[in-house]
Amino acid sequence: MFSACKGASRLWATNLLLVVGLIGGFRPLRAAEVSPLRVCADPNNLPFSNSRGEGFENALARLVAADLGRPLRYFWEPQRRGFIRTTLGAGNCDLVIGVPSRYELVDTTRPYYRSTYVFVTSTGRMPVLESLDDPRLRVLRVGVQITGEDYENPPPAQALALRGLAGNVRGFPVYGDYSKPAPQRSIVDAVADGRVDAALVWGPLAGYFVRRAAVPLTVTPVIPGTDRFGLPFTFEIAMGVRHGNARLREQVDAVIARRSREIRSILARFGVPLVEPVAQTTTHGQRVAKVGK
Amino acid sequence: MRLDAQVAVPSGSSRGGGEHSVQHLKALMRAWTMCVCGCTCIALGACGRQTASSGGAPESSPAVPGAPPGLRLVAEVSNGDWLMPLGDYGALRYSMLDAITAANVKNLRLITSFSTGIPNGHEGQPVVVNDTMYVVTPYPNNLIAVDLTNPTGPLKWVYQPNPDRRAVGIACCDVVNRGAVYADGKIIYNLLDAHTVAVDAATGTEVWRTRVGDINVGETITGAPLVVNNKVIVGNSGGELGVRGYVAALDVNTGKELWRAFNTGPDADVKIGPNFRPFYQKDQGRDLGATSWPSEQWKLGGSTVWGWFSYDPATNLVFYGTGNPGVWNPDLRPGDNKWSSSIIARDADTGEARWAYQITAHDAWDYDEIMENVLVDMEYQGRVRKLLIHPGRTGFVFVLDRETGELLSAEPFQPINWATGFDLKSGRAMEDPSKRTGYGRITQGICPSSTGAKEVVPSAFSPRTGLLYIPAHNTCMDYEGTEANYIAGTPYLGASVKMYPGPGGYQGELVAWDPATAKKIWSVKEEKFPVYSGVLATAGDVVFYGTMDRWFKAVDARTGAELWKFQTSSGIVGNPITFRGPDGKQYVVIYSGIGGWMGAVAFPTISEDDPEAALGVVGAMTDIKKYSGPGSTVYVFGL
């Protein structure tokens, strides 16, 4: 009986979506337009996404789907090596909500936010840190997310190594413990419980987990945004579609332009630290400028 | 007479093999009573061996008369069955079968073939025992049993373990599996989701399944286990994800973990105690697995074990190599980073380390050293030495005294330039500092590339020729700056690595190497692609290997002359084996199914346009799609 009700209400919701799509569009409804928007997402990676729809990328996916008048359907896959290949590449889904704006594996939309790596420190207990050249870093234990992945470096880890501070680094695998509800949370908790004096964390993670920490924590962006070794700490984030899927890219570009206020509001609700400016053009498929020499 | 000699070593009966040895004995007897083994015995003069071992001298390992004087094996080699991944405890990949010879191999023909149904990289090799062939597929790691009394008939059974699907996204380099081992009536192998499973060899029912590692933290298992003294020795994969490498021993009857030894961290974790006696000063000291890293980075220090194990019954030592250190970025881990890229000898029963030799300190190139360690006694500079021969990713063949860990020689078998050689006094590499990689530094023309001068695919050693047959690569690479990458919602910088063919106009080579003189005797150059298949040598003086452009080849063990070849449906990254069928005839088996790190470029989902794709190997695999698509075929050949 209960399950029958649930089924009925789901049916009703689908109908409502169709109706909304009709009203919102003021154009003849074609079959292709009500096909689901298939989003590739990690089922367990807060604050970005999870299978319960609690992440900000879930909220953004709902926003895009609603704007396009299409029901939302997920293809779940942990966002690790081969993610694009097994999701977009294998045709299992069509849209990734968050990728760097110059990411070769996909065609990217216009970026919709720019965030930064930040310092997380315990409010009152530790001095506020802003610069990687702060002399106090010489004596602090600094938590950094690392991948171990072949050839890849998190910029703060690299920055500390280049300053001769590798010995101060406490590494936290970026994948975390995937059996936990928020695998990436441990690095912020380590600041809260004093296992590290400070952590260098990608902004969206820090903003979200700091609000859920047991003690007050302070978030400060790493300044400057590009350090004296040429290491970037800010990145523009866009959505990604399969190479050549210009139609969807253009549609999503239009949604991003149309809904920028709501997007901002979602990001603010999740505490994502934002940095200006965000480029106003699409840069899909371009290789990022080589860093260093 | 022959049976007695045979059973003494491979079953480990001298060390309390118990019930398992008895079963093993029965199995072997059954196999052998069907064959005309007497002739083989006489032909090779192998009967003399029995006297040697029953003479009780602990030094005396089985001899192979007809072989160079002084040459002894640590254990009986494959003779009819194929029970363990590398054929025998000494990792020779050599079979006593001699019905297929250099003279008649040209008549080799396809007997049967079948698909495993999984079009991913088919590394590894089957197990053959009790007239049954067992094939482990890539993920989802099904176990297929083929009745060899009716090889063209239906499959005997298929066991489906259904490992956790999330493991697929974690595995670094295709979802490969390197095969099973037979022991105690069970087929035992590892699953991609870091479990080890034992399956009843007769019925295909699961006997036990043990969670060895945790995919939630990035661990997988792609390597093959070895069974020693009723212990299943396994190691973990996942160095790319910042896991910590270890070796564990499981009870063959129950799967219960008996010991676990890490390859990084304090001595207690590494199982280093008073009996640990590394030969070189550089490897001596307290807690080097922790102190040769900054702060606590050994906790994420990689050094995994995804290659092969070998075992010397005389000393009860298990030998294996470790992978590159984590995290990948060398700037983040100043120090030697022990025990990454090392060869380690451990007591099989306790896991206690006896010696270790670190090949490259503070790796900057991703040179895992998980390759096979071939164990043989042979004449070396005037006297018989107990050798461990390790053809390395670094491009050198390392010859060590396996009792002490002393480096006797290290000579390159491919064009390399990261080092000019090894100092035998200190055991250290003489590195070219200009070939080290680092952030913001453009390092061009590093040879070999990260895939090494040889990958995990195993060599073969023929006691008759005294030669090691090495499947080799000739690729170099450039490191150039960095570019944005993205994992789990977080932007990163990735080095752009490009690999390309090395000097000399070839990419692959089968090298016949004399470990005693550290010289290449002959070689077969493969122009287009690295040799990414294992090698098999037989008493018929035939050497088998495969190529990524779909050729399965037989060459003369003494000259390298091509004797026979067969074009398979897909590129070969598996390891040939040979067995004696229920009809007494000799057969040869090879998997055809391209994949693995380099071979994955053949998959339609990997773009050939970007030379940095698939961790940079695309540049070395140009045109592979024209030569091979994915495959999943097991081929059986006979005369």
Assembly type: heterodimer
Number of strand segments of chain B: 39
The major pleated sheet of chain B works out as: 5 strands, antiparallel
**Over all CA atoms, what is the radius of gyration of chain B?**
22 Å
Strand percentage of chain B: 25-35%
β-strand number of chain A: 13
Q: What spatial form of chain A do the alpha-carbon principal axes imply? A: elongated
Any low-confidence stretches of chain B, pLDDT <50, length ≥5? 1-60
Structural class of chain A, by secondary structure, is alpha/beta
Give the number of helices of chain A: 8
| Helical content of chain A (DSSP H or I, runs of 4+) | 25-40%
Please report the number of helical segments of chain B. 9
- What share of residues are in beta strands of chain A? 15-25%
Overall average pLDDT of chain A? 83
Shape of chain B: globular
Distance between the termini of chain B: 29 Å
Protein topology:
The complex is a heterodimer of chains A (293) and B (639).
Chain A lengths: L1 H24 L11 E5 L2 E2 L3 E2 L5 H13 L3 E5 L6 H4 L8 E6 L6 E2 L4 E10 L19 E5 L5 E2 L1 H8 L6 E5 L12 H7 L5 E5 H8 L6 E5 L12 E8 L4 H13 L1 H10 L24
Parallel strand pairs in A: 1-4, 1-5, 8-10, 8-11
Antiparallel strand pairs in A: 2-3, 5-13, 6-13, 7-11, 7-12, 7-13
Helix pairs in contact in A: 2-8
Chain B lengths: L1 H7 L10 H15 L3 H8 L3 H7 L17 E2 L20 E2 L13 E7 L11 E3 L2 E5 L6 E5 L9 E3 L7 H4 L10 E3 L2 E5 L4 E6 L5 E6 L14 E3 L2 E5 L10 E6 L5 E6 L4 H4 L17 H4 L18 E3 L4 E5 L20 E6 L5 E6 L15 E7 L2 E9 L4 E6 L5 E6 L6 E5 L4 E4 L11 E4 L13 E3 L4 E7 L1 E13 L2 E12 L6 E7 L4 E8 L9 E3 L3 E5 L4 E6 L5 E6 L9 E4 L5 E7 L3 H4 L24 H4 L5 E6 L1
Parallel strand pairs in B: 2-33
Antiparallel strand pairs in B: 1-20, 3-39, 4-5, 5-6, 6-7, 8-9, 9-10, 10-11, 12-13, 13-14, 14-15, 16-17, 17-18, 18-19, 20-21, 21-22, 22-23, 24-25, 26-29, 27-28, 28-31, 29-30, 31-32, 33-34, 34-35, 35-36, 37-38, 38-39
